[in-house]
């Protein structure tokens, strides 16, 4: 009996093991581990190739005339243009593509194009292009996740999770920052996660970090240790730094997308555009070589207080311009490190000034450079938690966490009030997609009243009689008009229903002010069409006057049900056509 009991117990144990081996969580975590290891190795390989590429281009400078350095980014840009035009043959792949794939295509993305873009970035950055490496490495990691999903015939939400594993692993391995990698996926790529989906992403990030650390070591970026010297005084100074960082973030984004539009409008062969942008970067780099490439050394100098105020201040604008020329012309790279670079220069400049004015109650300029880094990144990415964590993991210094948190949150608020989209989603918005929390926003929530309203509005004076109003309705075929007083201010709205309900056959001499609706439902230009449509339905009316938020009697236009339906139909048709053109296998 004892033998049988032991045998039965062993069989149950074996059965439990078999069931456990077939559980979805084990499969997901195993795949996450594989993605983490492969991505970690891919990042090691990428960094090695990037170093080789940089040496191949800049190793020739010492034996060449000094002006030859101007041509290096142009040569790299020409090669990138050839790769993009003749192999990728579509719009450029970056983090925007990953967001689009997870939000709109169930995670399906072109692995081939992703890895071609990685190759292009090695050439672009290696030749002096002013960009970061995070977009290529995130593409590499996401591409690995997508390729694994395709190979194993995985579908549905699990594809997105595997892509998220790859993206988190990339950031984790590239910056030795597993926490930042995980939060980056939540804030930027997927938008929101269930607890069951969160664990594989953590597993993947941890294994990628282990692989990267085994090769490169687990050291931080090696900056001086700073402290929050006098909270009572510095709190206000860091608050102001957050405001400046928000404005700087907005400037960076506006410059990037403005230059992007300029290059798009140029009548120039697509192969030549990145070369031309590279040439412009080369001219800047001839005088200020700090703008070339990623710029880690320059950031470290700012963090350690080794750069002069004038140099840091100038590099804020030169880096923004050089980065915009690189990416706007069709170069390849990312925006995270340029944002960190600009933030370090802006924060360092600000810190030099305030420390010079108040040396007894402020930290040295490097502390402000550190906080500025995170704040500008938060303002451009709309990912304040990622910004806070990546600085903490890069420096391993907890002393500055409070000012970093304050400045990142303030910068995010300021930048969001100027630009509604992040640097990762602005391109999607310009193509007609609005992504929030990893999902496309309903068209009626994405469109505003100002998109559909009529600005040239036919109005009537409140002193006119009903007879004149009826004649106007017959000639214009409009069933309602805003009513203005003698000062040209909105005093009501009059409709055909008002005439029918309030005017008898012998009362055509009544003035409009006697029959119009005084308590007018109104709309504002910045309201969504969904909000206005609900208001129209609740009031059972067909039109709303659009007024200024600062003065509800100032008429700006009018919006009707038909205006909303017409714009909605147009946007739906545009969306269908865009989706039909999407072919991730191109």
From TrEMBL:
Pfam families: CBS (PF00571), Voltage_CLC (PF00654). It is found in: Membrane. It is a multi-pass membrane protein. GO terms for biological process: methionine biosynthetic process. InterPro entries: CBS_dom, CBS_dom_sf, Cl-channel_core, ClC, ClC-type_chloride_channel. One of its GO terms (cellular component) is chloride channel complex. Residues 453-510, 516-575 form the CBS domain. Signal peptide: none annotated. The keyword Transport applies. Keywords: Amino-acid biosynthesis, CBS domain, Chloride, Chloride channel, Ion channel, Ion transport, Membrane, Methionine biosynthesis, Transmembrane, Transmembrane helix, Transport. One of its GO terms (molecular function) is chloride channel activity. SUPFAM superfamilies: CBS-domain pair, Clc chloride channel. This is Chloride channel protein. It comes from Methanolobus sediminis.
